[in-house]
Amino acid sequence: MTLDERLEALTHTVELMAGMQTHAAEESEERFLRLDERLLEFAERHDREIAEIRRELGRAIRLSIQETRNERKRRQEMAADAAKRHEEAAKRHQELEDMLKAFLERGGNGKH
Fold first, then answer.
1. What is the value of pTM for the model shown?
2. Which end of the chain has a smaller Cβ tally under 10 Å, C or N?
């Protein structure tokens, strides 16, 4: 093999390697672009899901607060009602006690 043939072969080999390198770089770039697209889609889906979770969480918190307030109001109403009934029962008890004292003071024949 002559020197020119060797140079021709080396040139051909270098050109072949350069072409392979270019092809590999293009494939790599395509893979990175596809990966970029997938990551972007993932990020968009993630953002949508997080937004939905936040909406649902906010709704759940609002409902929980509302239910807590309603429960507190019901308990206050029940406590007020119980206090009113207790007051009425105490008043009735006092009336009965006063009637009993009056009855006992009158004596058996209704005279003082």
1. 0.52
2. C
